[in-house]
Amino acid sequence: MEKRVTENPNSETQPPPPPPPPPNHQMDADDDDENVKQLKECSSLYLSLQDCLVDSNRDWKSCQKHVQALKECHERRMKK
Fold first, then answer.
1. What is the rounded distance in angstroms from the CA atom of residue 58 to the CA atom of residue 50?
2. Which of 32, 57, 75, 77 is the most buried if burial means most Cβ atoms within 10 Å?
């Protein structure tokens, strides 16, 4: 007697889960690296503003503390 293997129609093979997203700025690092380096001491403020914008779905109003900090840093650099 031959055994028949039947597949369960309710069981579907699922694709593997997608890999976790890269850290913020990882994909843009090569393109923006030189531009960010030019910001010197303000670069960390710029990157934190970018993180805020990503986290808030580009809501500039919720990131005003970051905007003001970057602006003040830039103004200090221009006075030197």
1. 9
2. 32
